[in-house]
Specification:
about 400 residues; alpha+beta; Fumarylacetoacetate hydrolase, domain 2; 2 domains; 5-stranded antiparallel beta sheet; 26 strands; binds manganese (II) ion
Length: about 400
């Protein structure tokens, strides 16, 4: 038996306890909790193989909100006692896996700053950078869950069709304007049956946790294809998530009110206290931090996004993932996509001494984030990292 310790200053102390999936050589992946620099096997820690001896968190998530509260309390209690040696691994000694089996995936567009910047860049002559619907509903689109990958997975530069304003005809080739979108992803723990929407007030009981999310974006493909049905191949080739799912239960001290919503929203989106999250993101480009997007500036609450997603009767399932959309704050160095940060490529940023606009082969992007925890502690989210490799040779 071993007594584990993590200091109160540790981003992964007892106040956090994010869930993930790990394996060691020769063994199947299993659910674990991260505590400080350790990965602790939950089937062994809590003597519950039925819930936790699985390669995904889905079985546990499907057990529901009351059970998430009880398990979190049981983990805290168990970690304050001696822990069986066979349950404990050093973080560096394990392989981490995609933590949950991703069901359906939707990406929203919840930052007014991002939507306004993109409106100015994509629709230069429009009188209002926000579309008329934007402040009445959380705009979103359905993406491709099969291309959601774990941090550390290489990202192959996509090829596709594009047509610039001056081009006489479309051309095919590797994406020249490969971009990132720094976002948070919300994991649905328990869904809703078809025809029974989730209300804004119930949403918190359905959202299991939060991951970092990089929605890699092919801007030239996107600009040509998106009219009139929205993003498709420009987004569906890969999105990267962090390996640790931070429980929403760990983020109580991070709740903040979203910015004032004016005009007033329709009753199904109205909340007495529309909560957002005070999460500070950071984007490093080849190791150099280039932007610090504040999640607290997001216009739409995660609860409003989930309520909107289901208000037409659409079902959601355990493992559904909805992402926030690019997190951008009001300041230039808070913009969460390179297209905004470099203003369409016209204003390069300096990365390790070089002027850069979009991603080149070999570039690496790492998203990290922290949030307030109880009593002045900080919550860590780990990282979502990916490196660009050259386009697959086209057939
Ligand atoms: Mn996005």
């Amino acid at each position: 038996m071993t007594r584990l310790t993590a200091s109160g200053a540790d981003l992964f102390g007892l106040h956090n306890l994010p869930y993930g999936v790990y394996s060691v050589a020769g063994a199947e992946p299993r659910v674990a909790v991260r505590y400080g620099g350790f990965v602790v096997d939950l089937a062994l820690l809590l003597d519950d193989a039925e819930t936790f001896a699985h390669p995904f968190l889905n079985t546990f998530m499907a057990q529901g909100h009351e059970r998430w509260i009880a398990v979190r309390a049981a983990i805290k209690e168990a970690l304050e006692e001696d822990v069986p040696d066979e349950a404990v691994h050093e973080l560096g000694a394990v392989t981490l896996h995609l933590p949950f089996d991703v069901a359906d995936y939707v990406d929203f567009y919840a930052s007014a700053h991002h939507a306004s910047n993109l409106g100015r860049l994509f629709r230069r002559d429009a009188p209002d950078p926000l579309m008329p619907n934007w402040k009445h509903l959380p705009v979103g689109y359905h993406g491709r869950s099969a291309s959601i990958v774990l941090s550390g997975t290489d990202i192959v530069r996509p090829s596709g069709q594009r047509k610039g304003p001056g081009d006489p005809a479309p051309v095919f080739g590797p994406e020249p304007r490969l971009d990132i979108e720094a976002e948070l992803g919300f994991v649905v723990g328990t869904g809703n049956p078809m025809g029974a929407p989730i209300s804004v007030d119930d949403a918190e009981r359905h959202i299991f946790g939060v991951v970092l999310f990089n929605d890699w974006s092919a801007r030239a493909i996107q600009a040509w294809e998106y009219v009139p049905l929205g993003p498709n191949l420009g987004k569906s080739f890969a999105s990267t998530i962090s390996p640790w799912v931070v429980p929403l239960l760990a983020l109580e001290a991070a709740h903040v009110r979203v910015p004032d919503q004016d005009p007033a929203v329709l009753p199904y989106l109205a909340m007495e206290n529309p909560w957002g999250l005070d999460v500070d993101l950071e984007v490093a480009w080849n190791g150099q931090v280039v932007t610090r997007p504040p999640y607290s500036a997001m216009y739409w609450s995660p609860a409003q996004m989930l309520a909107h997603l289901t208000v037409n009767g659409a079902p959601t399932r355990t493992g559904d993932l909805f992402a926030s959309g690019t997190v951008s704050g009001p300041a230039k160095d808070q913009r969460g996509a390179l297209i905004e940060l470099t203003w369409g490529g016209q204003e390069p940023v300096t990365v390790n001494g070089d002027d850069r606009t979009f991603l080149e082969d070999g570039d690496e992007i790492a998203l990290t984030a922290t949030a307030p925890g109880p009593g002045g502690a900080r919550i860590g989210f780990g990282e979502a990292r990916g490196r660009i490799v050259s386009a697959a040779r086209s057939a």
